[in-house]
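Support request, please re-run this one:
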Amino acid sequence: QEVQWPVRLASLNDNQEKFLKKINKFMEKSPNARLSVLPITYEEKEKEYILYFEAKKRYYLAEHKMRWASFESKDSTTVERMSVKDSHFIRSMLKYLNDTVFLFTTRQKCAAYLGKIASPDSQNLIKQGEALVNMRYSLLRKQRENKFLSFFNKDEVKQRIIFLNGQTEVPFNGFSFYKLTYKNDIPDDLRKVYLQMLDL
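Re-run finished. Output below.
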């Protein structure tokens, strides 16, 4: 059984939340039940989306003369929909960077742009930008773990949830997910809820 994550986000849809609440009830009633959670992460895709979003976000804030604190969900949606090939966005990045001779790809330009904002005097802007992305990626993984555990109310239940070392691969559907494994057989009602979630 699996719980799928949207790219770059630590949120779940209503059906997934219903499924996790059902697991919580099952584990509360079954003191011997153990749940293993194996994070399968499409790391390259996740980091690329984080990179593009963060670069576009900084451009958006600068263009609208906005502070970080005033950035709202509607702004986030606008940034999400903005093309990374947007001509104004590209021109703004290149204008901000002094030396663009060795920036061949959009990904390199975005990383250097983030690096320049993070550390203007850095000699290696791309590495500086990638370091920021890595930090955001680590935070995202922690946020997902916290979100998952938030559906389990009792400490006694949480102690029976084991997070395994994650794996990095290219999932068949292109999304990162948690693979769930039970020590004992899955009850029929829980299996039914999972199948309903898949259908929806």
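Helices lie at 14-29, 43-63, 73-81, 87-96, 106-118, 125-149, 155-158, 188-199. The mean pLDDT is 88.
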